Amino acid sequence: MKDELFSELKEKYPEVFEHCNYVSIDDGWFFIIDELCRFLSYEKFNLLDKKKYMLTRNPDTNEIIEIEKQIEEESNKIPRATQVKEKFGSLRFYVNKATDEQRNYISFAEAISGHICEKCGNKGKSYHVRWVKTLCPDHARERYGDDANEA
Q1: Domain boundaries in the chain?
Q2: How far is the C-alpha of 94 from the C-alpha of 82, rounded, in Å?
Q3: 12 with 74: CB under 8 angstroms?
Q4: Beta strand pairing status for 131-135 and 125-129?
Q5: For residue 63, what pLDDT is reported?
Q6: CA–CA gap between residue 53 and residue 28 (Å, rounded)
Q7: Is the dihedral angle over the CA atoms 118, 123, 129, 131 positive or is it negative?
Q8: 135-147 per-position pLDDT tens digit
Q9: What is the pLDDT at residue 14?
């Protein structure tokens, strides 16, 4: 993944990528990772929105302090990615800890990656020529020429 895309993910989801210095995937799966991280951080973002609303409405209440505590608690519940890579034509998103619900989100993202082109994000299929890669027909031809065989 391009450095600027990974930097964008790290900026939006600092907790998720706190212990992960790089991702070893192509750019086509960026939106899958972005959506996955949004789901993993959902409660925190809800509280941040609530805090922003309260600051514009009522800056002198103790409610802001309570929301700050809740944001910190939710931030601690967000799984930390330890490795993000492609293996056998699909995404692998390893975390240090996660709830069953969060693991379901991760499993879903990994499953749909097997149908999305790693290069461009369009609909893809698994191709096998020495390695299994999930590619759209155009990128399969570009990579393998006439040797492209569906896995």
Answers
A1: 3-41+78-116
A2: 6
A3: no
A4: antiparallel
A5: 77
A6: 35
A7: positive
A8: 999 999 998 887 6
A9: 93
